[in-house]
Every structure is written in structure tokens, then in C-alpha cells.
Task: structure prediction
Amino acid sequence: GITLGVAIIIATGQLTGFLGLSIETGGNVVQTVYRVFTHLSQTDVYAFVMGILTIIVILACKKLFPRLPSYLIAVIISITLVYVFNLQDKLALVGTFKSSIPSSNILSLL
Result:
């Protein structure tokens, strides 16, 4: 029911990043899937291969080492591969994060 619907919405929302497509996002699921399929020729091979490798690492870790944090291991391996093979220019990477805790002003809410 609702869980499947949410899973489909999340999965289709991740398709553009998984395939490395720079297309308009938003709209409904059918529109997103249509846009992805009409732009498949623009798939970024590096992003796609990295996505497939990440999924393989997650599934392999869950099967072979179920007590280990498979998602964390996949992230660490992905970061290592990007660094070792110098893929910083070939993949869209997340920039830097502020290293401080956001300020909070509770009094302004009153």
C-alpha cells in the first residue's frame, strides 16, 4: 500500500542522480520516469558505474558480513575509489560542510 508508493516515489527521485542526468526534477512519478527515459543517452557512465558498484558492495556486505555497517562500508569504498582513480572531475561531488553546529535562538520563537 502506502509503503510501496513511497518507495516508488523515492526510487524514481533517485534515478537522475544514479544515472548522472542533469534534467528537470519534480512533477509526478510518470513525468520523472518519462524524462529519465527520454534522456538515457545522456547517462554519465562514471556515475552509473559508481552507483552499481555501491549497490554491489552493500549487497555483498549484507550477505557476507551481516553484522558490519554495509552502507558505511560502501561510502568509504566509494570515497576511496574516487580518490585513488582521481575521479573528482568526473563525478558530481558534495562540497564542503560547515563544521559548526547551527545557531539556535529559541527566544525569537516566543
Summary: The chain has a mean pLDDT of 86. The two ends are 41 Å apart (CA to CA).
